[in-house]
């Protein structure tokens, strides 16, 4: 299919993320919006009809939820024949595949993406965006996609980007919850969070990041040598954390969860293996 050069983009969605995308894109292409969408946005062209709005080189959709994305696409679908559609709406992998099928059945190309940041991060070169789906669409419009942030292509399956997003959010929330627990613990001694943040971020970049890299190799090899740290060594430290949290009157559910997973790993025979071996305890719940 022949697709025109990216000179115009239709942005569908009326949330703050869609508005941020449109705002950045106006510096690089003609941005078209449709209906009552984002009335506060300057420098956009407002189409009177769906047909006029869908005449752009690329249709970029970013709704607040997958239900809204399905509704918006249903309204636009009669006019997206043989068009390029990029969807940055968060959802499930099944929803991504369903939307992709609706576009490709009309001769279009579909790319699903995930914006791993808040609206204020859109347009920054180090903001992570991942995409999967049509490789031709990704490469043809790569110049436009990189104006939104870094653009990483993950393969032809449109659901892959959604799975990455879910996994990365799991990492973010778990990490940030751990930080909040640490800050709460230090607050009991009246230590300001701003005092310890530089030390924690330094530790993350110099030590924890390398541990993650090491664990990744162990996970792929399914071998978890406990040469420098092992579960039976970690377990007592977790008990100390639980005791300290309880004594200082803060919620101890997070350290108790970590401890319970560790105890399960020890019971499964992995007491002399590294902390990375707990992936087998976590993964076992899938039944695979």
Notes on the structure:
Helix content is 51%, strand content 14%. The model has no long low-confidence stretch (mean pLDDT 92). The two termini are 40 Å apart. Helix 9 (231-247) packs antiparallel against helix 10 and helix 10 (253-270) crosses helix 11 (278-284). The protein is elongated, with a radius of gyration of 23 Å. It is built from 11 helices and 8 strands. The chain has helices at 16-25, 50-53, 66-76, 93-104, 135-140, 142-145, 160-187, 193-221, 231-247, 253-270, 278-284; strands spanning 8-12, 30-34, 45-47, 58-61, 84-87, 109-116, 128-133, 150-153. An 8-stranded mixed beta sheet has the order 3-2-1-4-5-6-7-8, with helices on both faces. Strand 4 (58-61), helix 3 and strand 5 (84-87) form a beta-alpha-beta unit. The chain is α/β, with parallel strands linked by helices.
């Amino acid at each position: 299919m022949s697709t025109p050069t990216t000179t115009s983009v239709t942005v569908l969605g009326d949330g703050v993320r869609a508005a941020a995308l449109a705002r950045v894109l106006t510096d690089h292409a003609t941005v078209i919006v449709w209906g009552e969408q984002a009335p506060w946005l300057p420098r956009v062209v407002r189409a009177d009809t769906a047909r006029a709005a869908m005449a752009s080189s690329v249709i970029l959709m970013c709704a607040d939820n997958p239900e809204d994305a399905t509704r918006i696409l249903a309204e636009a679908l009669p006019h997206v024949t043989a068009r390029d559609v990029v969807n940055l709406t968060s959802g499930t992998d099944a929803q991504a595949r369903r939307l992709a099928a609706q576009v490709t059945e009309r001769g279009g190309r579909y790319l699903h993406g995930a914006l791993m940041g808040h609206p204020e991060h859109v347009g920054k070169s180090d903001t992570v965006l991942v995409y999967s789906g049509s490789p031709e669409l990704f490469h043809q419009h790569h110049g436009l996609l990189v104006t939104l942030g870094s653009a990483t292509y993950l393969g032809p399956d449109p659901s892959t980007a959604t799975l990455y997003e879910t996994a990365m959010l799991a990492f973010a929330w778990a990490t940030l919850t751990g930080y909040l627990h640490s800050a709460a613990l230090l607050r009991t001694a009246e230590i300001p969070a701003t005092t310890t943040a530089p030390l924690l971020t330094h530790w993350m970049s110099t030590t924890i990041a390398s541990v993650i890299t090491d664990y990744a190799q162990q996970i792929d090899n399914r071998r978890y040598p406990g040469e420098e740290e092992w579960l039976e060594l970690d377990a007592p430290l977790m008990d100390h954390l639980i005791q300290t949290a309880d004594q200082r009157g803060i919620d101890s559910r997070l350290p108790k969860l970590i401890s319970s997973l560790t105890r399960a790993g020890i019971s499964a025979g992995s007491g002399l293996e590294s902390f990375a071996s707990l992936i087998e305890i976590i993964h076992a719940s899938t039944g695979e």
